[in-house]
Amino acid sequence: MKKTLSLLLALVLCLGLLPAAGAVTAGDFDIHDGVLRGYYGWENDVTIPDGVVSIGEDAFLNRNTLTSVVIPSSVTGIRRRAFWNCTSLNKVNIPYGVAEIGFETFYNCASLTSIDMPSTVTQIWPGAFSYCTGLTSVAIPTGVTIIERNSFAHCTNLASVEIPATVTSIEADAFRDCPKLMNVYFGGSRDQWNAINIDNIGAGNRFAMDAVIHCDEDGPGPGTLPNGALSSNWAKARTTVAVETGLAPAGLGGDYRMNITRAQFAAVTVKLYEAMSGRKAETTGENAFIDTNDPVVLQAADMGFVSGVGGGKFSPEALITREQAAVMLSAVYTRLGGSVPAVEATAFADNGSVASWAKSAVAFMNGKGVVTGVGNNRFDPKGSASIEQALLISLKMYETLK
Fold first, then answer.
1. Whether 87 contacts 111, CB under 8 Å
2. Nearest Cα to Cα of residue 265 among 332, 213, 216, 184
3. Any residues with CB less than 8 A from the CB of 106 and at least 6 apart, and which?
4. pLDDT digits (tens, 9 = 90+) for 18-41
5. Per-residue CA distances from 196 to 148, 169, 170, 193, 199 (Å)
6. Considering the entire predicted model, what is its pTM?
7. Which among 95, 118, 135, 151 has a CA at the least distance from the CA of 399?
8. 8 A C-beta contact, residue 88 and residue 111
9. C-alpha to C-alpha distance for 96 and 371, rounded to whole angstroms
């Protein structure tokens, strides 16, 4: 009888140790029905497994040594306090498809200097970025209608904010204690701005109200950049930063909505290198190409940022492709002393269309949040890019990899 009871007790204990139905233990990750409930490893740079659809409540709570997180494209939800008090977190991507940034998700992530929210985000919950003291600029996605209370409170280095015309309400203390907030770029007209219901103007939102409010008075038409070039209204604020940072070379023309050529992007890589290194790009003066004498192209070639297309040609007037751009940016990064890990495949659904010589660069630059997909987990490697898009990814690399 005692032996039988002992066996039954052992069986119960063993069953009690089994994971609940739907639970998966993937290394140091606790995943249940697609929800990442916790991370129990000690790595500071974490890549969340593919297939996770939601990052659960408190999943990385108080992980103050966590420095970077790569979130797979399968994730569509980030729940409350997921990265609460991750004070060393400086790199995180929010994939296309995420609709909400949960309550106090990035509270006190003081090392974040920038955050890219995809166009699918329509709600930013209260306190989502409170005490992110490293943030200097924020672009709120089109589709957000309410900037909720304390969303960006105590972001003491926040200098500029892009607010879409869809916003109809800014709640109390949304921008409390943001003393460096000098510029607000609003995607609508002055009348639309004046119609926004803004709570607590005298205290919690006074810094936003005291900032210079830049409105797009002409609706969907182009805006004018500090150098006189035209830019799409959606890109104007960040392209302005790129121009003011010195990332826009001469020779881009007067309309940055046009697609960028290989020669123009080569010039962008030279400017990016000089801005990130603080040094002038070198040149030998030798010409490796038979179809161009452009000194900036030759300079980019000497630095190893660009190569030809075969037959001694560079094809300077051909449009840059998205995969070529990723490779050129990676070449700048390696010239600066960085390394790009070799991979056999990217995470994109159209990986088969990415050239083998571009896969590592595409995967690396996407992992760092410098280049993103075009929707539906596609990269569109052979697609072209506009001048303003090229400057935006150049600025993103400058801000995140410098």
1. yes
2. 332
3. 83, 84, 86, 89, 92, 112, 115, 128, 129, 132
4. 333 333 344 689 999 999 999 988
5. 13, 5, 7, 5, 10
6. 0.52
7. 135
8. yes
9. 12
Residue with tokens 């960040």: 238
Using CA atoms, how far apart are residues 242 and 356, in angstroms rounded to an integer?
A: 31
Q: What does the alpha-carbon distance between residue 29 and residue 75 come to, in Å, rounded to a whole number?
A: 15
Long-range pairs of 334-339 with CB within 8 A, sequence gap ≥ 24 = 334/304, 335/273, 335/303, 335/304, 335/305, 336/273, 336/276, 336/277, 336/401, 338/401
Position 398, amino acid: Y
Contact present, 219 and 192 (Cβ < 8 Å): no
Contact 92, 72 (CB under 8 A): no
Show the tokens assigned to 342: 């070799």
Token pair belonging to 12: 């119960």
Q: What is the pLDDT of residues 116-145, one digit of tens each?
A: 888 889 999 999 999 999 998 888 988 899
CA distances from 246 to 243, 295, 395, 399 (A): 5, 19, 10, 13
